[in-house]
Amino acid sequence: MKTHRTVPSGLTLLAYLVAFAVPVVLGVAAVGSSPYLLSKVVPEEHRETVASFGTAAASLSGAGGGLFSPAAEIGEQRYTIPGTPVAHEGEWSPRLADDYPAPEGLVPGVDFAVEIVDDTYIAHWPCRHDVPVWSFDAPPGSEADLAWAVETLASASGLALRYAGPGSEEDRESRGAISVTYGDHPMFHNAEVAGVGGPAIWPEGLILQGSVTLRPDQISPVPGDPWSRALTMHELMHAVGVDHAARHSREIMAERPGPDPQMHLGTGDRFALHLVGCH
Ligand SMILES: [Zn+2]
């Protein structure tokens, strides 16, 4: 975790990292037709098994974990540095969760969830502040999907997110920005974890920093790949303070994705973005 290195002593900071699992069903169903999917979804030691199973294996890899997934735990880490709050920056004020009841038909914790600080405040970025999203070590072909995800989230949330291109080392730790790194992360020792993302949260829910790490082998070299886009969107949504919806729900923020990657925001996703956004 790099986020808490940049925080001056005397601040309280909560940093969340939430992992996103690989959709095993997708990988198995695609065996034979797509070597790319096979290599990106199935751990090497299982590949022969998967290949011999072929599409019949798809029916074995349904709910409850599937063929190769002994119920992977979704990781979450939290760091606290004791101290006093920072002054609020720009147009920002605390947002009380009680002021935002769920609309009819949406169930909190099932259809959507956001980060709540002290059981009281909805964590959110400042509005009317440019939030650059920098990429680091982005593989060829990935840029268009990242730009697409940033634009989609900006439009749906009203947050002033913009894709800013490859960042420098300085940008990686800069406050007021989101970093998207294509590379390794300690949580990736679990072969099912495809990406992690989260915000750094100051007292009363002020978010001033976000970080995302994506496993490069989960990103297609061909722009427009549904899984690359779903994964990128999911982790970016963590970075703006959105938490998981129920497993296999038709939301980008589903705790575990279903067989079809969600490329489009669900109604729960949209309400969560309203809670953390600027509309
Ligand atoms: Zn997640």
Automatic annotation (TrEMBL):
Top-level lineage group: Bacteria
SUPFAM superfamilies, A to Z: Metalloproteases ('zincins'), catalytic domain
Name of the featured protein: Matrixin
Species whose genome carries this gene: Dietzia psychralcaliphila
